[in-house]
Write a sequence for this structure.
């Protein structure tokens, strides 16, 4: 059974940082590129970032460049995303995706 479990969300002030993690099981993690996707309140899904199977290539949506850093640890089947300089518009549920599966999401709220 494919399982992706996100963690690390929470409430943070504007300008703050969070590190999201996604623990993966049920498929061969290093066979797949992985992504982070988010959904803000009342809005549709928005692709945030992606990473190649070995971590050599990373991709970011324009508004995340320079603030977010995606990474992976294939020895631990874990995907991460370091989020810095957070803004109120980053408030959303963040999902990891890959291996034909999705996690349940972790809430990130940026507010003073």
């Amino acid at each position: 059974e494919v399982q992706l479990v996100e963690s690390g969300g929470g409430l943070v002030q504007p300008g703050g940082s969070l590190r999201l993690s996604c623990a993966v099981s049920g498929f061969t993690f290093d066979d797949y590129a992985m992504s982070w996707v988010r959904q803000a309140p009342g809005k549709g899904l928005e692709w945030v970032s992606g990473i190649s199977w070995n971590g050599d290539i990373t991709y970011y949506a324009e508004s995340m460049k320079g603030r977010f850093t995606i990474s992976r640890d294939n020895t631990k089947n874990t995907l991460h995303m370091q989020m810095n300089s957070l803004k109120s518009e980053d408030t959303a549920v963040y999902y990891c995706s890959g291996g034909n599966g999705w996690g349940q999401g972790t809430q990130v709220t940026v507010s003073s």
